[in-house]
Specification:
Blueprint: H1 2-20, H2 38-60, H3 72-79, H4 86-106, E1 115-116, E2 124-125, H5 126-146
Antiparallel strand pairs: 1-2
Helix pairs in contact: 1-4, 1-5, 2-3, 2-4, 2-5
Length: 149
C-alpha cells in the first residue's frame, strides 16, 4: 500500500502545477451538453476521493461491505462544479488526495482483504478498491490534461 500512496503523492506533485496553470475560462467548457467540463471531471475526482475515503476507513473497521453506491452524474449536477472557482477545486483535489495517501499508508496489512461495496453485486477486497482508485484517478487526469491542447 505504501507504493500506491507514494504514486498518489507523485501524481499530485506532477499534476497540481499543470492544473493550476490551466486557463480558467477553458476549464468550464463543456464539449457537449451531456459531457463534463474539466471542472466537472475534477469535481468528480473530488467526489471519488470522498466516497473512497469512507470505504477505506470503513473497510479497516470491517463495515464497508454494505456501503452505498453513488450516482456520479447526480453528484456532479447537484454540486454545480462549473460554478466553482478552479483554484479552489484544484486545492481541494490536491489536499484530499494527500490525505488519502496518508490513510492508505496507515492501512494495516490484515485489513487489505476487508470487503468493500463499490456498487457491484459482491463486495471486493479493500486492496482492489485502492488499486482501482489509483487507476480511476489516472484515467480522469489524463482526460483533463489531454484536452488541454
Amino acid at each position: 500500500m505504501k507504493d500506491i500512496a507514494r504514486q498518489i503523492r507523485s501524481i499530485i506533485a506532477t499534476v497540481e502545477p499543470q492544473l493550476s496553470r490551466m486557463n480558467h475560462d477553458d476549464v468550464g467548457f463543456k464539449p457537449a451538453p451531456h459531457e463534463w467540463s474539466k471542472k466537472e471531471i475534477l469535481g468528480h475526482l473530488i467526489d471519488s476521493a470522498a466516497n473512497n475515503h469512507q470505504r477505506f476507513v470503513r473497510a479497516v473497521n470491517k463495515v464497508a461491505a454494505q456501503f452505498p453506491t453513488y450516482d456520479q452524474n447526480e453528484w456532479v449536477r447537484i454540486q454545480r462544479y462549473n460554478e466553482a472557482p478552479w483554484p479552489s477545486l484544484v486545492a481541494l483535489w490536491s489536499a484530499y488526495n494527500n490525505h488519502l495517501s496518508h490513510i492508505i499508508e496507515c492501512i494495516p496489512a490484515d485489513a487489505e482483504s476487508s470487503p468493500c461495496n463499490i456498487g457491484k453485486e459482491n463486495p471486493v477486497p479493500l486492496d482492489f478498491v485502492i488499486k482501482d482508485y489509483l487507476r480511476h484517478l489516472r484515467h480522469h487526469l489524463k482526460d483533463i490534461l489531454d484536452q488541454q491542447a
